[in-house]
Amino acid sequence: MAMKLHEYQAKQVFADAGIPTPASELASDVDGAVAAAEEIGYPVAIKAQVQVGGRGKAGGIKLVEDEDEAREAADEILGMDLKGYHVDRVLVEEAVDFTNELYVGITMDRGEGKPVAMVSTKGGVNIEEVAEEDPDAIAREHIDPAFGMHPYQARKAVYDAGVDQSIARDVSSVLTTLYQLWDDRDGSDAEINPLMVTSDDEVIAADAVMNIDEDALFRQPELAEMEEEAAGGDELEQKADEYDFDYVRLDGNVGIIGNGAGLVMTTLDLVDHYGGEPANFLDVGGGAKAERIANALDMVFSDDNVDSVVFNIFGGITRGDEVARGINEALEQFDEIPKPVVVRLAGTNWEEGMEILNEDLVTVEQTLEDAVQRAVEYAGEVNE
Amino acid sequence: MSVLVDDDTRVVVQGITGGEGKFHAQQMMEYGTNVVAGAVPGKGGQEVEGVPVYDTVHEAVEEENADTSVIFVPPAFAGDAVFESLDADLDLAVAITEGIPTQDMARVNKRLSETDTRLIGPNCPGLITPGEAKLGILPGNIFAEGNVGLVSRSGTLTYQVVDSLTNRGIGQTTAIGIGGDPIIGTDFVDALELFEDDPDTDAIVMCGEIGGEDEEEAAAFIDDYVDTPVAGFIAGRTAPPGKRMGHAGAIVSGSGTGTAESKINALNDAGVPVGDTPEEVADHIEEFLA
């Protein structure tokens, strides 16, 4: 999974590496934003610091010319709800007078198993749309991870993209630095969109995306510190982080808990197949002990949308007796079970698990299909 | 017959002195796997469950003729452990470890292309030839000897499908968990090729999931080269775009690549029936073998 840095964090990382960025300052209240704008000098852009794409279109970025406009924009953006994310900070940034917008990015091409550098003269728009509608507008250069990016590769990508000769050198230099950062910092994606070109042929990173491979945070202590600040998401997703679950919230009302990503996904699909709607994806992972199992139930019960729960475990390294203990532990603390729970245990120690499991508290089914159908049925009854 | 592993396979367990390594080395031996050595830096000269431990994989090869490694090394050091097994010129390396940094795997992937060693995983349950040997963490008791080859990106989903098969009296030649990471050693195409060439494999199950384009590539390969009947399953039909479903590799990108629909269509176009449920996959296999 990737840890996403906020724009202001990514810009700091880019600026420290020598990539030109506009003057900017972070603010968390209106007065602070106005003071920052005065200091930087108008016009400035006021930009919501939340982890969602399309901030501009959603009203999260405003260009302002004077103090009144700055106050109005900051007041509007701070505290707004942007696609489900609360905005509590804005970046106040020098507005760059540009003549052209480029795109540069580095990502991992999983098909090739190699990093790829990308350059396009169609910057400033959603690059995934460009990739779909006009794939030739993006120049791509695969990089041998053992050697890193050779200087000629940066030049080649820039020339292949049709970048004007007057700025080709500077763009190559930005791309080279960006790869170095991506490589040194265990990036999964590093992206500048747009890379603005000014009337006097200077390039400047007007936006910055830096996503870090979470599996590599152990060797990126400086970035790991930024993680807390970067953490977002709703209350349930934060709770899942605390419990260290792979959790994704969905729109339905059948709560799903299981072990192993593929099997949990399959359980979601079966809920849908049998006419229900999954409320979440929750993978307890391999070898979960009783406490973790109890936490998983607590997690799913915390979602008000959930009307029934299907608990499907096929034990390999996860043991049925531990699962049963965890379920008992979680449910015995209630006078009344908040939501009906359907349990299916298979694999390692499932017989021991069935002996331990308090069947007064749950509905037991023998097969995955039966368990899912029962949970869908329960969820349906609640809504009648 | 089987692919990749049988009772002649000579296994060195990298990380055999750790909790997981020790437990699963024991489990593998109980199943009948020929575990000949362990390799853990600094632990040379010890014994685990009667198995001699060496400081390096190279020593395990020299002293015990190990030809295959199973890697239970923590993620920070697992990339290096794979490099070591590649350098020791093993036939097969199986990386169970979950959470290896992707950039480490990109470097491994590059080196892999220059050697003759085959890598399974990482982030996988391993592989098993029922009745002969297992390499990894799969629960041996749900498998049975037979004539169906199975390849899957997911561990527990493999167990679910195998259970459906075994309950119907359908056994397996070999089951291979290729792993849920974005960069893996052996992919679907490689595994399909092995099963196609195995005279004892009469039908193949392929369990894919959302993310990447490996299933689409596999479909094209099946269309061109595979005569053995294949039944498929794709997990993640209901996954929303942009949300990673547990596995690092299981994500539908914002631009819509990696969807279940695209994979199911590609497989259907190649003549591969895709089950809506794991039981339906077993139904298809039963029909193939009838």
Automatic annotation (TrEMBL), chain A:
Cofactor annotation remark: Binds 1 Mg(2+) ion per subunit.
Keyword Ligase: yes
Gene Ontology CC terms: succinate-CoA ligase complex
Gene Ontology molecular functions: ATP binding; magnesium ion binding; succinate-CoA ligase (ADP-forming) activity; succinate-CoA ligase (GDP-forming) activity
Top-rank lineage group of the source organism: Archaea
Substrates-to-products reaction catalysed: GTP + succinate + CoA = succinyl-CoA + GDP + phosphate; succinate + ATP + CoA = succinyl-CoA + ADP + phosphate
Protein's GO biological process: succinyl-CoA metabolic process; tricarboxylic acid cycle
General function of this protein: Succinyl-CoA synthetase functions in the citric acid cycle (TCA), coupling the hydrolysis of succinyl-CoA to the synthesis of either ATP or GTP and thus represents the only step of substrate-level phosphorylation in the TCA. The beta subunit provides nucleotide specificity of the enzyme and binds the substrate succinate, while the binding sites for coenzyme A and phosphate are found in the alpha subunit.
Family label: Belongs to the succinate/malate CoA ligase beta subunit family.
Protein name: Succinate--CoA ligase [ADP-forming] subunit beta
From TrEMBL, chain B:
Domain CoA-binding: from-to ranges: 4-100
Function as written in the Swiss-Prot or TrEMBL entry: Succinyl-CoA synthetase functions in the citric acid cycle (TCA), coupling the hydrolysis of succinyl-CoA to the synthesis of either ATP or GTP and thus represents the only step of substrate-level phosphorylation in the TCA. The alpha subunit of the enzyme binds the substrates coenzyme A and phosphate, while succinate binding and nucleotide specificity is provided by the beta subunit.
SMART domains, A to Z: CoA_binding (SM00881)
Reaction(s) catalysed by this chain's protein: succinate + ATP + CoA = succinyl-CoA + ADP + phosphate; acetate + ATP + CoA = acetyl-CoA + ADP + phosphate; GTP + succinate + CoA = succinyl-CoA + GDP + phosphate
One GO BP annotation of this record: tricarboxylic acid cycle
NCBIfam families linked: PRK05678.1, sucCoAalpha
Keywords carried by this UniProt record: Ligase, Nucleotide-binding, Tricarboxylic acid cycle
Homology family: Belongs to the succinate/malate CoA ligase alpha subunit family.
Active site: H247 (tele-phosphohistidine intermediate)
Name of this chain's protein: Succinate--CoA ligase [ADP-forming] subunit alpha
Name of the gene this protein is made from: sucD
PANTHER family noted in UniProt: SUCCINATE--COA LIGASE [ADP_GDP-FORMING] SUBUNIT ALPHA, MITOCHONDRIAL, SUCCINYL-COA LIGASE SUBUNIT ALPHA
Gene3D superfamilies xref list: NAD(P)-binding Rossmann-like Domain, Succinyl-CoA synthetase domains
Molecular function GO labels: acetate-CoA ligase (ADP-forming) activity; nucleotide binding; succinate-CoA ligase (ADP-forming) activity; succinate-CoA ligase (GDP-forming) activity
Quaternary structure, from the entry: Heterotetramer of two alpha and two beta subunits.
